[in-house]
């Protein structure tokens, strides 16, 4: 669950919002002109997001490397047929 505030209210009450995030871990969605622009999250949530992002990047890299090996093996087989 998250709380939502606009950038002006956040500026005027930053300490309160920081205390809220620290105490409860609740996320705060920050809007400008009614559109989401940023969020305040706990350090724990940030760490989880970064781990997920790093895991996704590692998975994509591994898939790309596997595809490259398959391509090179296929190419080597075709080059050998000539």
TrEMBL record:
Matches recorded under SUPFAM superfamilies: YefM-like
Coiled-coil parts of chain: none
InterPro entries on file: Antitoxin_Phd/YefM (IPR006442), YefM-like_sf (IPR036165)
Domain of life where this protein originates: Bacteria
Purpose: Antitoxin component of a type II toxin-antitoxin (TA) system.
Family note: Belongs to the phD/YefM antitoxin family.
Protein name as catalogued: Antitoxin
Species: Roseovarius aestuarii
């Amino acid at each position: 669950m998250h709380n939502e505030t606009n950038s002006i209210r956040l500026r005027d009450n930053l300490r309160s919002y920081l205390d809220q995030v620290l105490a409860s871990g609740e996320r705060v969605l920050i809007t400008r002109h009614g559109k989401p622009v940023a969020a305040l999250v706990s350090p724990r949530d940030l760490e989880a997001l970064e781990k997920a992002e790093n895991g996704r990047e590692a998975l994509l890299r591994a898939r790309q490397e596997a595809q490259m090996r398959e391509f090179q093996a296929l190419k080597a087989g075709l080059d050998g047929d000539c």
